[in-house]
């Protein structure tokens, strides 16, 4: 490996940052890219007039020993805290308490605080959508949507949802074929804020319904702005797929209605409402790939969809991409 030529990492979600951290710790220079204005990907917190709202990942669990050790470090640094919501479930038309023993973690004071802290001072270019990944005589180069080229790079790690990764894999047709076979499901997310606190004990609720899948009281998480009663609602994959192009106001109206019917208390008109569409929210099925690679070429692909489709899976997949890269180039 030529230590002065950096490794390009496309995507600053949990998978890309996990790979970046591992490579940086091994003394390898990295250069990150993201099409968004900030890091985090689906670990997203939207700043709004009613405080910061976690619109993507709501919390995460740590079942793998290695991930649990990383989370322990994050906790010591104050990046994450345990969230202990009063949990409910809605199943077969019945709303009931559903407490359990599962430890659930959230970023503090917002979910995206974790990825922001992981990025630290690593070199990154935001608002830079990579459209092409190509190999020159010795090194890799990237082309962005503005037509600018970036490089040279010794290796490239693509850490995006599968449908976005497959379009960047023209240099490795076999890998591209595998990745193109992964489908991902959408999720509509809606945030609502009420000026008065709703008369409900619910802080998180797993819903088995036609349209709603999950609802959470944002202010029940540690470090959140508690002035308003803010809620985040997620629609099911199938409702989201069927209503992919519904105007945002209608998505808000529908999910607000479903929420009001379910929660069992008076629900006034929200003083704030917004909707966000996640096109590639979760893989349709889980895989056990860890990370994918054409190691001879120097191309690696990682993301939650290579494993469990959760924050933990994304972190593990990034670690695995870095491990494969370092091992192949020892
Ligand atoms: C609504 C919702 C709720 C969820 N709830 C939970 C939960 O409660 N618990 C849990 O564990 N998981 C949850 N998840 C899943 C979790 O968010 C993901 O598993 C994890 O964040 C994925 O990380 P990633 O790095 O693989 O991908 P991403 O976070 O999607 O990161 C990919 C990054 O690549 C960038 N990118 C894409 N294409 C390009 C390009 N061409 N050029 C440059 N940059 C590009 C994107 O902007 C993005 O920042 C949820 C997801 C959603 C959407
Ligand atoms: N909306 C999306 O796009 C998206 C994408 C990825 C993950 N997620 C969600 O992220 C969560 C992460 O999963 P995890 O395994 O880390 O967390 P987890 O163990 O809390 O939940 C896993 C699943 O188990 C069930 N469950 C857990 N505790 C329950 C309880 N007390 N009462 C009733 N049902 C309960 C729910 O169906 C839940 O979806 C899941 O809820 C998943 O649906 C959502």
From TrEMBL:
Listed Gene3D superfamilies: 3.90.660.10, FAD/NAD(P)-binding domain (3.50.50.60)
Binding site residues for substrate: 59-63, 187, 310
EC code(s) of this entry: 1.6.3.5
Catalytic activity: 1,2-dihydro-beta-NAD + O2 + H(+) = H2O2 + NAD(+); 1,6-dihydro-beta-NAD + O2 + H(+) = H2O2 + NAD(+); 1,2-dihydro-beta-NADP + O2 + H(+) = H2O2 + NADP(+); 1,6-dihydro-beta-NADP + O2 + H(+) = H2O2 + NADP(+)
Keywords: FAD, Flavoprotein, NAD, NADP, Nucleotide-binding, Oxidoreductase
Binding-site list for FAD: 15, 34-35, 42, 58-59, 130, 304, 311
Cofactor: FAD
Source organism superkingdom: Bacteria
Family, similarity comment: Belongs to the bacterial renalase family.
Function description: Catalyzes the oxidation of the 1,2-dihydro- and 1,6-dihydro- isomeric forms of beta-NAD(P) back to beta-NAD(P)+. May serve to protect primary metabolism dehydrogenases from inhibition by the 1,2-dihydro- and 1,6-dihydro-beta-NAD(P) isomers.
PANTHER family, sorted: FAD/NAD(P)-BINDING OXIDOREDUCTASE FAMILY PROTEIN, FAD_NAD(P)-BINDING OXIDOREDUCTASE FAMILY PROTEIN
Protein name (Swiss-Prot/TrEMBL): Renalase
């Amino acid at each position: 490996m030529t230590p002065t030529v950096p490794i390009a990492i496309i995507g600053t979600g949990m998978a890309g940052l996990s790979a970046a951290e591992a490579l940086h710790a091994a003394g390898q220079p990295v250069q990150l890219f993201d099409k968004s204005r900030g890091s985090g990907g689906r670990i997203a917190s939207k700043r709004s007039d009613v405080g910061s709202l976690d619109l993507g990942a709501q919390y995460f669990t740590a079942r793998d020993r290695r991930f649990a050790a990383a989370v322990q470090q994050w906790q010591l640094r104050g990046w994450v805290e345990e969230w202990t919501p009063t949990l409910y479930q809605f199943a077969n038309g019945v709303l009931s308490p559903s407490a359990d023993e599962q430890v659930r973690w959230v970023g503090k004071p917002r979910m995206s605080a974790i990825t922001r802290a992981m990025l630290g001072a690593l070199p990154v270019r935001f608002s830079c959508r990579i459209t092409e990944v190509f190999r020159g005589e010795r090194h890799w180069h990237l082309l962005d949507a503005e037509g600018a080229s970036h490089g040279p790079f010794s290796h490239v790690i693509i850490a995006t949802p599968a449908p976005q990764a497959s379009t960047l894999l023209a240099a490795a047709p076999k890998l591209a074929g595998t990745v193109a076979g992964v489908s991902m499901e959408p999720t509509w997310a809606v945030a609502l804020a009420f000026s008065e606190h709703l008369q409900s004990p619910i802080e998180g609720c797993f819903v088995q319904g036609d349209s709603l899948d999950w609802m959470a009281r944002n202010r029940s998480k540690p470090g959140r702005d508690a002035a308003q009663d803010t809620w985040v609602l997620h629609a099911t994959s199938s409702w989201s797929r069927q209503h992919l192009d519904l105007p945002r106001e209608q998505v808000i109206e529908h999910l607000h209605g479903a929420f009001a019917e379910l929660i069992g208390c008076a629900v006034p008109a929200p003083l704030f409402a917004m909707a966000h569409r996640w096109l590639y929210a979760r893989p349709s099925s889980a895989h056990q790939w860890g990370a994918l690679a054409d190691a001879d070429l120097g191309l690696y692909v990682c993301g939650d969809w290579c494993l469990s489709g959760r924050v933990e899976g994304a972190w593990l997949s990034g670690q695995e991409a870095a491990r494969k890269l370092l091992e192949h180039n020892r």
